[in-house]
Write a structure and sequence with these properties.
This protein has 104 residues and is α+β, with helices and mostly antiparallel strands. The chain has helices spanning 40-50, 65-77, 90-102; strands at residues 34-35, 38-39, 53-55, 58-60. 36% of the residues lie in helices and 10% in strands. Helix 2 crosses helix 3 (90-102).
């Protein structure tokens, strides 16, 4: 994982292009339903084709902002298990799950 100086929110860079690619299908979490109008499978297939970066191994369609938001939310809420994660987008959900995987 790349480690850099904290950004203006006080968080260090948690992206690393060389990281192992992850997805929620392998994480053993609930991927039923839709978020942002997509199933997880639809989101994952699109993202696998168009990712530009990654966040803790989860590919991002943008600059990983929604992943960051999920991470910060999980940190602020002291979420310890993926069962406590939520959100309206799969990216936010992945960021929350990534926080629980990190075990912080």
């Amino acid at each position: 994982m790349a480690t850099e100086a904290p950004d203006h929110f006080g968080y260090a860079d948690r992206t690393d292009v060389g990281a192992t690619i992850k997805d929620l299908r392998r994480a053993g979490v609930d991927i039923s339903g839709t978020r942002g109008g997509q199933t997880y499978i639809e989101f994952d297939e699109l993202r696998d084709r168009q990712s530009v970066d990654n966040f803790e191994g989860y590919p991002c369609l943008d600059l990983c902002e929604a992943h960051w938001a999920g991470w910060r939310w999980a940190e602020n809420q002291n979420i310890q298990s993926p069962d406590g994660c939520g959100g309206n987008s799969w990216s936010f959900y992945e960021g929350c799950v990534a926080y629980t995987e990190a075990g912080l």
